[in-house]
Every structure is written in structure tokens, then in C-alpha cells.
Amino acid sequence: MKTIPFWTDGLEKPTFPEPPTPPDNLDVAIVGGGYTGLNAAYTLAQHGISVAVFEQHTIGWGASSRNGGMATVGIKAPAKEMVKRYGLERGRQFWQASLDAIDRIEQLVNEEGLDCDFCRSGHVALAFKPSHFENMKKSAVWYKDKL
After folding, report:
1. pTM (predicted TM-score)
2. 20-58 as b/e: b if 16+ CB within 10 A
3. pLDDT at site 100
4. Angstrom distance (rounded) from CA 48 to CA 145
5. Binning pLDDT at 50, 70 and 90, where does residue 2 land?
6. Are 33 and 53 in contact (CB under 8 A)?
7. DSSP 10
8. Using CA atoms, how far apart are residues 79 and 131, in angstroms rounded to an integer?
9. β-sheet bridge partners, residue 28
10. Is pLDDT at 53 greater than 80 in this prediction?
11. Helices then strands, each counted (H, E), the chain
């Protein structure tokens, strides 16, 4: 079974004779070279903070290179659950953070001229049964009213 993304086929993997030595004076060390780690490093460096990223494999090795390339709203826990758990205001903040994350991706693509075919294309949710459709209608009303 293949465990690496097909889009890396034919790409030359970077090789290092030995792991690079980090600088003697370092403000922040980030473990993990995925989307989150790289964005944190980029943002810190933009503010003049010395930062190094430590990745066990190659940059983007883990989940960041094994997804469908989609940036969707929300977080792992459903918005209703977040509101129930943390209250309406905090739930709204979590929801807004997910929207802001997509804006951040677009901002980075534009600022850095990244050739990655970024586009905002919406989100589709499908109902397989009439009961699913009814639940989706109720959810749509809840999202409109609460978030």
C-alpha cells in the first residue's frame, strides 16, 4: 500500500548529509513542519522573532500533505457542540477562527505569490434520506440565527 501522496511522485526529495545545526540564539523552536508549524514560523519571523522548524521527515510529511487540499469552515467538533460546551460567545469565536483561517490561507497565497490554485468554491453537504434533509434545514436555521 502506498502511503505518500501521488502528487509527490517524480519529485526529488531533499537530502541532507546530516541534520542542519540550529542557530545558537533561537527565540522559538517549532516541532512539526506542517501547515500549523510553518504558519507559526512564518508569522513569528514576520515579527522579527528568530525561529527554527524541526521536522522528522520532510516539510509537509504528515497530515498536511495527505488531505484533499480543501480548507473548510468549522473545527472538528460541530459548532452546536462548541456552543453547548463553551457558551454562545465562545462558540462564535471558534466559528470565526475557522473563517479567519481560510482568510489567512488566501492572504499568504497572495502575499507570497504561491502557485497553488487557491480558490473559494463553497461547501456542499448532501442528504441521503428525507430525515437527513430535515435535520440539515434545522441546522441551517440554527447557523443563521446563532453564528
Report:
1. 0.76
2. eeeeeeeeeebebbbbebbeebeeeeeeeeebebebeee
3. 95
4. 42
5. confident
6. yes
7. T
8. 20
9. 51
10. yes
11. 4, 2
